[in-house]
From TrEMBL, chain A:
GO MF, one annotated term: ATP hydrolysis activity
Domain of life: Bacteria
Record-linked SMART domains: AAA
GTP-binding as UniProt keyword: no
Record SUPFAM superfamilies: P-loop containing nucleoside triphosphate hydrolases (SSF52540)
Stretches that traverse the bilayer: none
The name this protein goes by in its record: Sulfonate ABC transporter ATP-binding protein
UniProt organism field: Candidatus Thermofonsia Clade 3 bacterium
Amino acid sequence: MQSVVLLKNVNKSFGSAGRPTTVALKDINLEIGPREFISLIGPSGCGKSTLLRTIGDLIEVTSGELLVNGKPARQARINREYGMVFQAPVLFEWRTVLKNVELPLEIMGVPKTERTQRARAMLKLVELQNFERHYPWQLSGGMQQRVAIARALAFRPELLLMDEPFGALDEITRERMNAELLRIWQETQTTVVFVTHSIPEAVFLSTRVVVMSARPGRISDIIPIDLPYPRNVETREHPHFFELVTTVREALRKGEEMRET
Amino acid sequence: MDIALSPVRSARRVAPALAVILIILTLVVAWELIKLMFNLDKRTLPHLWEIAEAFGQPSRRNGPPLISVLIEAALYTLRGALLGFFIGAALGFVLGTLFAHLPLLERSLVPYVVASQTVPILAIAPMVVIWLRGSWWSVPVIAAYLTFFPVTINTLRGMRSPDPRAVELMGSYAASTWQTLWKLRFPSALPAIFTALKIAATASVVGAIIAELPSGVQQGLGGAILNFNQYYITGPERLWAAIFMAALVGILLFVAVSAIERIVLRNIVRGA
């Protein structure tokens, strides 16, 4: 089966003339299959956000091969094959909730009635159908982030890129959003690449956790998560959940030690 | 419920009006106090009631009352000011938008835009009049000259104000520059643009009045001010009346722009 994301020996360095270059990503090799939920986890500065942005072609790679749905990342972006969710909801404050979800469809030139129909369906998916006429400032942080997810899914992308989407939410809201995201992922059959700082969040959500370490940013371990579905509140209390959390934590520590030696 | 709330509600509605009246009263008292304390004669500072009285009296023998002369002059000046305001605002918007998208153009042209505003308008105005062969068009052109600057600078700043992630988001949709301009940059820039338009509204009136002086345009407030200046010794209150009328035109334009701003930006609640 064709991979959704394929990274071969990808390197990325930042720098301008006369300044020492920083190696943000070094020798990244990763293949992500259809319907996978991949978490990128690692300390600050390990390049996990950079990696996500290179997949989205928001940052160009310095060297190596990067294919999205078998095409160069740029082509995939132009074909609108992925949706993006940031840590902040980045909603347009002058648009209603419905109009915010319609935004990508407007840009793609989808006719008005179809646009509204699809946006309404997405709002139903994130359970905000009663808020379509509200403005972003009238919603809580968690609701705003759900609007952002609905917007990213509005044009039914095969790939969803999420950069710490729940990082600014409190623990309780965050756990609820995790469960909701899993449900949406299962209903929409999308592939997800998810950047996070939180080990339990990564374990709960993912099919595989990609552990990264810093300076230079590289992949130090990939841990498959074999927790059964459906995953719910009980999953978080399962002994195997704790085993996997420990495994990821140890992998993170090992990655740090490798750097020091 | 309603009975309990209504005094609060009406107080909220009355309070601003009360504040306006209080400020006007304070200014009137201050005016007359200064006149009294420094023992100023009529030529230095006439009584406010003398100015008020002058509005009702004919400005020329057997002529219409001063107020109708001044209203006519104000409407005439307003025409030039408004046209200049629209030309300047359009020019400023186009320049600001271009600068926001073309950093090279910004770096090479913005210094000249700034320099244009350091040249005294009084020196420029006679030249414009000569270039335009003394036509009425020198009035809106000079008004536009004062208007375009704040609009250019604020459009530039406003167009660059969106959250970088919002720009990235548009990039992730492969949105064109044109789409990003109309769907993101322009709405983000509106609050800054309206701030500039309010400054420009008053500047356009000043520009129109100044432009009328060297153009030999007699029908406007500029002509009236020039005329009453010459007879200041015999009737200082008439010049003061003309000044009040000029201020009123500026305030009216400002209030009009503010009203449009409130309608356009009604859905944007900042810091809520």
